[in-house]
Amino acid sequence: MTSNIRKAALITGAGRNIGRAVVLTLAGEGFDVVVNGSSDRAAAESVAAEARALGVQALVAMGDVGRRDECLRIAAEALAAFGAIDVLVNNAALRPEKPFLEISPEDWSRVMTVDLEAAVWLSQALLPGMIAQGWGRIVNFTGMNAMQGYSGRAPVSVAKHGAWGLTKALAKEFATKGITVNAISPGPIAADDDKPGVVTDRHGYVAKVPSGRMGTPAEVAAVVRMLVSEGGAYVSGQMLQVNGGAAT
Predict the structure, then answer these.
(1) Rounded distance between C-alpha atoms, residue 115 and residue 157, angstroms
(2) Residue 183: phi, psi to the nearest 5?
(3) Which domains does the chain have, with CATH numbers?
(4) Model's pTM, two decimal places?
C-alpha cells in the first residue's frame, strides 16, 4: 500500500491453499486481515498467527458463508474489529463432482449459496462502508474449467458464471465510488500439501497448460495484491486468468 493508513481485508475460505496465500500476501503488504474458515478453526488460527508474525492484526471469523445469516455475522465481526473493511476477497468455494441427472435440489442449492450467493451477501454488507470512505476493492473467483463448462460439475459452472456476471455488474454500478470489482480465474493450482515435484494431477490438467506445470497459490495471490493496490485503481470489471497460458 502506498498510503500510511492501515487497511483491512476479509478473505473467505482462508484456512489453506489460495485463501491462505492471499491472507499472507496482503498481510505482507500491511493489510490487517480477517481470516474466514467454515469448520477447521485450527487451520484458520494458524494462518492468523502467520499473519500476525508479519506485523499486522488478524481476526479469525469462522462461519459457513453458504448461509446469509452467517455472512452477515462474519461481516459484523470484521467491521467491529477494524471499523471498515476495505478489501473483500470471495475465495470460498465448493467443487463437487456428480452426474447432472443425479443432482438433488439440495446439492444444487448448496453450491449456489457458497460459490455465488455468499459473494452477494458479503458485498451487500461491506459495500456501504467502502462507499462511505470512497475506496474499496472486491475480488471474486471464477475458474478455468468453470468458465469452459465442466462435465459433472454443472452447478459449479453455473455459479462461477454467475460470479463473473456479478463482477461486471458491480464494477459498473460502483465505479464512481472509488470501488473496483474484478474476478480471477485460476488454472490448475497445486495444494499446500502437495510436495514439490510430486504434485498430484488427478484430472490431467497439466497436459492442457502450455507452461507445463501447475500454478501455486502464491502466484494467484500476487494477482490479488495487484488488484487491491492503489496501482490497480484503473482495473475494474475484468477477469484475470492465472492459468499458465491455457486458453479459455
Answers:
(1) 10
(2) -125, 150
(3) 8-242 (3.40.50.720)
(4) 0.94
